[in-house]
Design brief:
Elements: H1 8-12, E1 18-25, E2 32-39, E3 53-63, E4 74-75, E5 80-86, E6 91-92, E7 98-99, E8 101-105, E9 111-115, E10 122-124, E11 127-135, H2 142-151, E12 168-177, H3 178-182, E13 189-198, E14 205-209, H4 214-218, H5 234-238, H6 250-265, H7 284-288, E15 292-295, H8 307-314, H9 330-340, H10 384-393
Antiparallel strand pairs: 1-2, 2-12, 3-4, 3-5, 3-13, 5-8, 6-7, 8-9, 10-11, 11-12, 13-14, 13-15
Length: 399
């Protein structure tokens, strides 16, 4: 899975466990930017947002470095935050379900109030917000993905199985007028990260999400990192600022990314990302900045995930809005980017869309499953070999 059940803290309190994040220009309302955060993997009817946490989107302007193309963006210091909080339920609806109220504070200081699960959401000048139970937009063949990483060979089939089929999540959708909320930003490129934090005057980071498949896969244990072979980096990574990781563990993150990215590059039997003389992988610095990049001046594009990053690395001008739409096949895009470097056909896991495609209209996320899947909640092992062994024991995979 993208980031579902990928930290001990998130498994213990699923309401703060971020499954995915998405950022894209609205397909139906030009001039609007949509931010989506999903939490509470495999949520059931009656699931609630935490009243002890803040759900925060952090947005900063970025540019291509002045000294030319490289492996990372130059991140500005100005920040445009959107933080949503939720009250403990104080009443029940006619069906006997708890009624929860929420409030989002916008970059200009204004607030939007809304009721959870109200499809109309709440509105303020230049903003609209929805929060509630929806269908999980994630789709990929998670079992074949684990097999591919563990065996270091492509294990996908033409008719893949969506590991998230039947799952619901709690989703937060924030639609913002670009001119109103980001008009002071220099340029049109924005970096976006999603976080859950403790409520209060001094929030502490609980979970975070930038690009898909970073924490659980690129920072997982593929057996290649000889420096930190038995170190689970996921909770350490959760504490880092997405724009400015602290120096404390940078060496550990770099060693893990250098090792894992090199392993994944060789999955197709050829080398597309030659290492630097010191062993640094060309993508390591890019992934250390764990955020999505979107061009708010470009129109909506469904399948433009990582296009801006690829343009940066190749020294060309990007052509799409980038970001990540709800219907984007991020799993395929991610593997193709890392494994082939764009030098070959697109890698497909055989799953091309979610159970129900997301809508072009607010609140974008598909309604919840009428018969949601029931699944236990366990911490996904950091070691991919342990993940495969678990799947084999459950009869879901075979080498």
């Amino acid at each position: 899975m993208s980031d579902h059940n990928n930290s001990p803290r998130g498994v213990a309190e699923p309401a703060i466990d971020i499954g995915d994040a998405y950022v894209f220009p609205s397909p139906s309302r030009p001039g609007r930017l949509v931010l989506v955060m999903t939490v509470f993997p495999n949520a059931q009817p009656g699931a609630l947002f935490s009243d002890a946490a803040g759900y925060r989107f952090r947005v900063r302007p970025v540019t291509v470095p002045a000294d030319g193309p490289g492996s990372g963006f130059a991140v500005g210091s100005d920040e445009y935050d959107i933080t949503c909080t939720f009250a403990a339920p104080a009443s029940m609806d006619d069906a006997g379900s708890p009624v929860q109220q929420g409030t989002c504070t916008l970059p200009d200081g204004a607030t939007v109030s809304f009721r959870v699960n109200d499809e109309q959401g709440g509105e303020a000048p230049g903003a609209r917000v929805f929060a509630g139970l929806r269908m999980d937009p994630l789709f990929n063949d998670s079992t074949a993905y684990v097999e591919t990483l563990a065996t270091q060979r492509l294990a996908f089939r033409a008719d893949g199985t969506n590991g998230a089929d039947g799952w619901d999540i709690l989703g937060i959708v924030v639609e913002l007028d670009v001119a109103t909320m980001f008009g002071r930003a220099p340029g049109t490129l924005l970096a976006v990260g999603a976080e859950t934090v403790t409520a209060g005057k001094y929030p502490m980071r609980l979970d975070r999400f930038g690009r898909a498949f970073v924490k659980g896969q690129l920072l997982g244990e593929l057996g290649a990192d000889t420096v930190n072979r038995d170190l689970d980096l996921r909770e350490l990574w959760n504490q880092e600022d997405p724009f400015e990781p602290a120096a404390n563990y940078l060496g550990a993150y770099r060693a893990r990314l250098n090792a894992n990215l090199a392993v994944m590059d060789g999955i197709d039997g050829k080398l597309d990302w030659p290492l630097e003389p010191d062993g640094t992988h060309p993508l390591t610095e890019l992934y250390l900045g764990d955020y999505q990049v979107v061009d708010v001046a470009k129109p909506y594009a469904e399948d433009s995930y990582l296009e801006i990053e690829q343009a940066l690395l190749k020294g060309r001008t990007h052509t799409t809005s980038g970001g990540r739409s709800l219907n984007a096949d991020a799993g395929d895009a991610n593997l193709t980017f890392i494994v082939t470097g764009g030098n070959g056909p697109r890698i497909s896991d055989g799953v091309d869309q979610a159970t129900v495609r997301a809508s072009d209209n607010f609140p974008y996320l598909a309604p919840p499953n009428p018969d949601p899947a029931l699944a236990g909640r366990i911490l996904a092992p950091s070691k991919v070999a342990d993940q495969l062994a678990f799947l084999e024991a459950a009869g879901l995979a075979s080498r």
